[in-house]
Structure formats: C-alpha cells, structure tokens
Amino acid sequence: MHDTATQVVESGVAAAIMRPMSKPDTAPTQVPRRARRAPDPGERLRDSTRTRQRILDAALAEFADKGYAGARVREIAQQAGVNTQLISYYFGGKEGLYNELMATWHRQEALMAREGASFADGIAGYLCAFAARPDLLRMFAWEGLTRQAGPRPPDTEPGPGEEPEVVDIRRRQAAGEIAADLDPGFLLVFLMGAAMAMVTIPEQIERLCGVRVDSEEFITRSDRQLRLILAHLAGSPRGSAGTPRPGEPAHAGADNGRPELPGDRRHR
User: Fold this and answer.
1) From CA 152, how far away is CA 131, in angstroms rounded?
2) From CA 199, how far away is CA 135, in angstroms rounded?
3) Element (H, E) at 132
4) Dihedrals φ, ψ of 226, to 5°?
5) Where are the alpha helices (H) located in 133-261, listed in sequence order?
6) Radius of gyration of the chain measured on its C-alpha atoms
7) Tell me: the pLDDT tens digits for 80-94?
8) Could you tell me the pLDDT band of residue 259, with boundaries at 50, 70 and 90?
9) 41-70 vs 84-91: helix crossing angle, rounded to 10
10) Greatest Cα pair distance in the chain
11) How many angstroms from the chain centroid is the CA of residue 126?
12) Which residues contact 55 (CB under 8 A, 6 or more apart)?
C-alpha cells in the first residue's frame, strides 16, 4: 500500500511538471520609451565649443611636456576624450593645433595691449598671464630648443621695416618713458628672458629670491621689482643732451663714452 501511494504521488508530480504553464491573462505592461529630443542649434554650438577647448587644453599640455616634435595627436585625443578624427575635423592635425594655440595667444596679447597703458603695466600683464598659464611658457621654451623640428609660428617671419613692438618702444622713448639710449629690440629680449625664467630656472629663482615660483608672493614681488627697474630705465624726451637725434637709431654711437668692460680690449 505504501508503494501504491508513492506511485500516486510521483505520477502527480510528473504530471505537474509535464503540464504546460498557463499563460497570464494579460501581457506585461510595456514601459513607454521617452522620445529622444534633438539638441537645438545653440546646444550643438556649446558642445562643439567645449569639445574644441578640451582638445586645445590637452594639446597645450602635450606641447608643453614634449615640444612639437615629441607631441602625439593620439595622446592629445586620449587626454581630451575624443578620437583623432575629431581633431583632424576641427584643426586639420598637429600643425593646425599648434597654430591655433599661437593664434589664441596672439588674441590674448591684443586684449592686454590697452590703449594708453604704461610700458610697466604691459610687461606686468605678460607676467600675470604667464603665471596663470605656465604651460604657455614651456611651449615657447620648446619652440626655441627644437625650432627646426616644428612649424614656424604664424607672424614670426621677419618682415620689412621694424616690428610693431620695436616701434612702440621708440614711441615711448621719444616721450621720455624709456631711456633713449636703450636698444628697443634688446630691451624686449631681456624682458622676455626674465619672464621665461619662471619655467627655465625656477630653482635659481627660489634660491636667490627666497620665494616659490608658483606662489602669489612671487608674482606680487616680481611686479613691484619690475616696475622699479623700468622706472630706473626712464629717460627724457628726445632732443635732450645725450640722446639720439631724430631718425638716428637708439644704439647708434652707443660706444661713445661707454666705460670699458672687464676683458674688453678693443680700445687698448
């Protein structure tokens, strides 16, 4: 009897397993998908602008770290979170990226050149701009170190006549803002070298000046010392005794009355 009962139970279980599952009376509720809204032209423009800026920021970091020759578009794309084809679409490749960075810097320079600003204000503006974006200075340093490997930046080819910066210095010399016996080109080069020092010799700055290059104190003290130096370089309007005559280069006759320097044997 026990065996019969067991068989009945087993047959019932088997029947339950073999019996097809009954379908639900109603189908499961389908969650409607939200229609995807196409971005309006303004949004597309903002996305494009943000993407371009990410690419430019990544390119600046890459050029600052490796120079033009060592920079790789693939690395730039990876840092910007885009593919290399997008870089080609926006900028045409590595040279286009480099030229766009230089053009961006020139536009910033134009904004800093306020009409009526003093020479000291202009130089201090450069100092603050480079302190805020030291990667720019590093890129410029690489440009000098590997000048044959990369494209010549736009607007750097020597042209006929004097450069605008030199013309501006001569104007300031004529007004007495800068001593007339200083050569404008060399003055600008020396000031550029002083600005480059924060990325080329930061250890020497910290050793000699006792302040960290990346500190606000360095910028504040540099601004003050720069203005003092430029104040000492101030001259008198042209036509005063000892200044070049109109039309005469500022460096003409610079050896006249110049004290002999150590090792200078030209006058012996």
Assistant:
1) 24
2) 9
3) helix 119-132
4) -60, -45
5) 134-145, 164-174, 184-200, 202-209, 216-232
6) 35
7) 999 999 999 999 999
8) very low
9) 100
10) 139
11) 12
12) 76, 77, 80, 82, 86, 87, 90, 91, 97
Burial of residue 34, with CB atoms counted within 10 A of its CB: 0-12 exposed, 13-18 middle, 19 or more buried: exposed
Contact 237, 178 (CB under 8 A): no
Report the mean per-residue pLDDT for the chain.
77
- How far apart (Å, rounded) are the C-alpha atoms in residues 268 and 265? 5
Please determine, for residue 263, whether its predicted confidence score (pLDDT) is greater than 50: no
pLDDT in tens, 193-218: 999 999 999 999 999 999 999 999 99
pLDDT at 157: 58
The amino acid occupying position 203 is E
pLDDT for res 247: 44
Cα dist. 249→99, 160, 167, 168 in Å? 34, 16, 12, 14
Amino acid (one-letter) located at 2: H
